[in-house]
Structures are given as structure tokens and as C-alpha cells.
Amino acid sequence: MTSISKSCLIILISLTLLTLATGCGKPDLSEMGHDITCYAATYSKGIYKSDNGGTSWYPIDPDHEDLYLYFKKVFLSPDKRALYVTTTGAGLFVIDPETGFVGSIPQFKDDDVRAIAFRNSSPVGVDKMEILAGMDNRGIFIKRNGAGNWEAFNKGLTYRDVNVLFVHGDDIFAGTLKGVFRWDDASKEWRGVSEGIKNRNITSMGVDPHGDIMYAGSGTFLDEKGLLANIPCLYKSTDKGKTWKASDRGLPDKTLVYAIAVNEKKPERIYLGTSEGVFRSTNNGKKWHRIDNGLPDDSRVFDIKIVHTPDEKGLVYAAGSTGVYMALDDKKALWVDRSYGLVKTNITSIVIGSSPN
User: Fold this and answer.
1) CATH number reported for the structural domain that contains residue 37 in this entry
2) How many domains does the chain have?
3) Is pLDDT above 90 for 142?
4) How far is residue 175's CA from residue 291's CA, in Å, rounded to a whole number?
5) What is the span of the domain harbouring residue 232?
6) How much is the mean pLDDT over the chain?
7) Which residue of 16, 113, 224, 244 has the lowest C-beta tally within 10 Å?
8) Is residue 100 in a domain?
9) Residues 6+ apart with CB under 8 A from 33
10) Structure letter (DSSP) for residue 222
11) Is residue 20 part of a domain?
């Protein structure tokens, strides 16, 4: 073998080893999530669907202009048979995911509806499902047994400006402009549970799989602030929401927390969608780090969701001012764009319709 041939062989072997070394243990994100169905809400435009994990999107009923011009959020019923769309100013809509048919709820016409939640809502026994709607000024309404009229559900709810509804098991929590409330089944009324929270404009909530550790994120501080006052934007409860402590170490001042997602397989790992991008904690909220590799600068993230693949890998979806992005929940998360087919506007909400699990 000539010296040139030996040199070429050495170079070829070196390149092969380098490729193996750099690629080892790093799954190709372009091949992940193709079996996942997603739905996304856009600001001033319609609702979009992806049947390949966000690789491409298409609009649902693009001619339904009642859903345009508003801030919207989407909520998928546990039986996957109804997609609820809340709007600021146009009321509440329901979409059939199979047919794409869009219907409105006449009772909430032209209202600001902000949140939807479901209780007693397993696919078995759907007739016992309770659907709750949180509103601006009007508080909370409930639809029992998946049928009938919506009834006011406000006993004990001191503040009727509801930003978020959160259900874990049989427990129902409401995040309002003035704190957190918990529904008490014994007395049939809401009870305030905001001890320890300084910024009571609660905009997001999350919980670990067992319900022992809860998180509450806040929006713009609405009260008068003292000159040296420290107003945390995130709080944690270790007694199922009875009392709260600040959990904002590592988060910038004046951050708005729009969304919280806990990895159910690894509950010590929590993601925040914020006005300053995405932050992650790997130690139950004790400290936060910005996760922005691959995410455009100045991204505001309005919603964040985690879904698991059959091999137990966590895929994180972030929706916000620069579109939809996906990352693998690993040590060095890298965001990849999942916005093809979406209009260039704020993506205000995202839900995972189905996954390989």
C-alpha cells in the first residue's frame, strides 16, 4: 500500500470515528414525534392542527372568521372528542377534531373566556365529566355530566377575574387576579389558599404526578410596590396548595410566567414558558436556568407541553412569539423549529392530542 493510500485510509478512519463520537447518544430530532397530533392557537388567526408532531401544520376551518382577531387558548377533552377554544371577546367555541366542525356556546357570546378544565374525566365514564370555564369578571361556570346548561360555580370565589383553572385528581384550583382558590367539596365553596404569595395575579399552575408539590406562576404585578420590595414571580407549595414560598432563584426580575410543565416521568424537571423565554429546573424548582439553545432571541413563550415517546424520552413543545419549537428533555436541550405551515404571528397555546404512548 502506498503512503498516499495509507494517509487516505487514516483520514477516513479518523473522520468515521469523529462522526461516531459526535453523534453518539444524540437522537435525530427530525425523526422524533412524527406520530404525535398537536393543536395550536394563533393570535388574530385561526386554529391549526399537525398530525406529524409539528413538522407541518394546516388550519382547521380557515373560513370561520369568528375565531380570528382574538387572543385564544385551546383545551382538548380527555376523551379527545372535543377541542375547546377560549377567546378574549368572542366567547367559547368547540371544535370536533375529526370533522373540523366549529360550534359556539351561545351562553358565552362576546365574553372573555380564559380557561377550561375537566374533572372526573377519564375516557371510561365520560358521562360523569365536569367541564369548568373560567372567565373575566364573571368567575367560573360548570357543565355537569358533559351535558346540560352551564351553571355559575362561584360560591366563596371572592375575585371573579379567573386566569387559569387547574385540576389534579378531584382537586380544583383557580388562579385569579387576586390569588389562588381551591374548591372545597365538603362545604361546596371556594377557599382562598394564597398564604405566602406576594404577586397574586396568578397566570399559570403546575403539579408533580403525586400532587404533593405545586407551582404557581404570576403575571404583571398589579398592586402598589414598596421601593425595596422583592416580588417573586414563581411560588412553590409542598403541602398541596395550603401555603406557598418563593421559588424564583435564577429567574430575571419582572418575569411573567405564562405556562408551567412538569415532566411526569421525572418530576424534578420543570419547564417554564415566560416573557424571557424558556427556563428549566432539574431540582424541583430550587434553581432555574435559561434553556435557549436554538430558540430565537427575545422569544416570549406563552405555552409549554411535555409528551413522552415509547422509549420514555421527553419531548418538550414551546409555543410563543416566534412560533412552535421542540426540544428533547436532556442535559443540553436543543430547540428545533416546528412552525412550517403556521402563520407568522404569536402562537398563544398548544395541546398534544395524541402520542405513541
Assistant:
1) 2.130.10.10
2) 1
3) yes
4) 26
5) 31-354
6) 88
7) 224
8) yes
9) 52, 53, 54, 55, 307, 309, 315, 326
10) -
11) no
